[in-house]
Amino acid sequence: MNASSPSAPCHHPSADRRSAKRILCASAAVAFGLGLLASAVSCESSTTSTSKQSSASTRSPASTQTAQTQPASGPASGPASKSVSIQDITNTPLPTLSASNKPAATPTAARTPQLPSTRTDNAKDTYFGVAIVDPYRWLEGDNADATKMGAVTDEVAAWTDAQNAYTRAVLDNLPGRAKVEARLRELMEVGAISSPRMAGATTGGRYFYSKREGSENQARIFVREGFGGKPRLLLDPNTLDDRGLVTVSWYEPSHDGNLLAYGTYRSGDENSVLRVLDVQSGKDTKTTIPNKVSGVDWLPDASGFMYRNLSVLGNPYSGQVRFHKIGTDISADPLVVRQFTTDENEALATTYGPWGGLSKDGRWGLIGYSTDTRNNDLWAFDHTAFATTGTVERIPIIVGDQSQSFGTIIDNTLYLQTTNDAPNGRVVAVDLASDNASDRSTWRTVVPERKDAVIEGVSMAKGILAVQYMVNASNTIDLFGLDGSNKGTLRLPGIGSTGLSTDQDRTEAFLSFTSFNYPSTIFRVDLAKPEAEPQLWERPEVPVNPSIVEVKQEWYSSKDGTRVPMFIVHRKGLKLDGSNPTILNGYGGFNVSETPFFSATLFQWFEAGGVFALPNLRGGGEFGKDWHDSGRLANKQNVFDDFIAAAQHLIERGYTRPERLAISGGSNGGLLTGAALTQRPDLFAAAISAVPLLDMLRFENFLMAKYWVPEYGSAQN
After folding, report:
1. Which of 5, 359, 369, 553 could form a disulfide with 364, with the two C-beta atoms 3.0–4.6 Å apart?
2. Could you tell me how many helices (H) and strands (E) the chain has, helices first?
3. In whole angstroms, how far apart are CA 354 and each of 319, 366, 698, 704, 708?
4. 454-477 in b/e burial notation, b at 16+ Cβ within 10 A?
């Protein structure tokens, strides 16, 4: 956590769309799509997670760009590909779905058991005078306890086991599957590395980063003494569980680099426990804080930190922010802010709730409260006074507006990134030491709103604001002085997706860059010299040749005439004869932007002649607030229309035809594929609906799903 952003892991059903989860979705799509080239469709009842997928990288190089209606993606390069021949798969005609959705006959049909039966019942609800019959309500599980809806019953467990056994019997016997699996396994065992976090002196300080080798289940945490120092292993979660089920979910070094706070969870439960490690000795201290801690902000002398967790583990609506002093019992940690109860404020009791942060000098604190999935209130407070009195005296910054606001405080100035009066974002300076900090007429504009670009994030370096923009679904980074003066545009390797790791005490920074044909790479840059060539820091090897593919961005018209961009990736020399097997992936929700990303597992698909398409559907954040609003609540059908129009564009342009077109999506994207398949079953030969949200009448009754009501609405009102 830091003062520039909330500690919320995400406000939507799917986590960071640039994370390994997206790589896993691509892997599943590839495996599924290649299997379809050999036999008919079967749907698996559950997904298998792994932490072995990543957007790893190789050598970068010569730029390859295909001119289309909009700019294409950037550089391509790499070692020769060790591809496996799958001619026997690609020459097999693609079957069509039968009306019963049962697989068509295959050479192994004799070994395939019958599709397990599913009983129905007569559960019924009435919504505003309309009776809705739900014959499969029993598959929700045990709903007797309203606080633990959906508990798995023996019958549901048995049904799931039977469905999975049937699915495995079909999929495991597909012709050519062994070759596909062998190649896919190789591609999934690709290493990954994060951008370093800098701490300590600007010269000879410490650099903390995570790294996972291809054969490892989980990433390990390393530190270097100085930029060129020898890597030293600090934390290895693989030694904590021989099955590789312990994950380091986050870590944050103290400003002097002597302590490292980190969180771990087990078996994917995401209930992170905070611990503090002494960096010099590599040993854990006695500090332990449970209940899903999501990050910390340190005091400058490392004597304590602010953190967020749940007051009641298992209740996602019990968020709280507290301050911990090193060496004291956590029961004495003073409360900064907590989530509303339903009696106090019914609407705000079921959002993500509160989060907080500290300025690097420890003088000021920020408190945020998420009012829905996109907007939040924001206050500042004097942390030194709080440390003395135990009372938080809030200074309202933005309260009650439909806007999103984060900030970083340097000296007494809050550099506020906000969508207030600027749907595409702006940065203003707020003097917290003045008596009228809440008076917006006194705020000074540092970076004005742009109508042609959306501000995705702001990073602070020494005397510099680095502003990451979204322009036509890819990133640029512009640099500004604290007075708003233009300091140039950071040089990037090409057109793609970026990230930036900075520190307020230096202009040294680390740039992460990736694109569909550019493996994720970490560069060292000097923000005072934005035109300089980025210096390679780390790039894991991948067993593919990125230069074999080309990337296009094409625009098409949706049902209502709205123009929508779409990335299209395929092997060079592709013939537009309508015969190419194609995976169309989508999301379209929660203000999440779909930008270029690298997935080694997709290259098996490209090697086989497959096409991968990723449209920037409404509901996402690629073009700001209006783009998101046009795909949420009553406008949700626009997302489905955009996706269907993307499929029609691919067919009309000769990339593919319905018999060779598969769609995929997860979480909110699972809803998308479910709706598209229901509305246009004639358009697709196969669909992956991964961990989908499909029951839009009852979804909010389960787990943390009330978070999502502002995006989807509620059948209750």
Report:
1. 359
2. 10, 37
3. 6, 11, 26, 15, 16
4. bbbbbbbbbebbbbbbbebbbbbb
Q: Are strands 454-461 and 464-471 parallel, antiparallel or unpaired?
A: antiparallel
Number of residues in the chain: 717
What are the two backbone dihedrals, phi and then psi, of residue 673, each rounded to the nearest 5 degrees? Answer: -70, -35
Residue 25 pLDDT > 60, yes or no?
A: no
Residues 208, 260: contact at Cβ < 8 Å? yes
- Provide the 3-class DSSP secondary structure of residue 346: coil
Question: 708 or 15: which carries more pLDDT confidence?
Answer: 708
Model pTM score: 0.84
| pLDDT of 466 | 98
Give the pLDDT of residue 100: 34
Strand 582-585 relative to strand 563-571: parallel, antiparallel, unpaired?
unpaired
d(CA 248, CA 267): 12
DSSP code of residue 80 = P
Rg of the chain (C-alpha set):
26
Distances (CA, A) of 168 to 107, 163, 177, 536, 663: 16, 9, 12, 44, 21
- Name the packing angle between helices 668-679 and 637-652 (round to 10°): 70
pLDDT confidence of residue 22: 52
- Going by pLDDT thresholds of 50, 70 and 90, the confidence category of residue 468 is very high
Q: Which of 14-28, 241-255, 638-652 has the lowest mean pLDDT?
A: 14-28
Tokens of residue 640, six digits: 């489905």
| Beta-carbon contacts of residue 344 (< 8 Å; ≥ 6 apart) | none
DSSP for residue 484: S
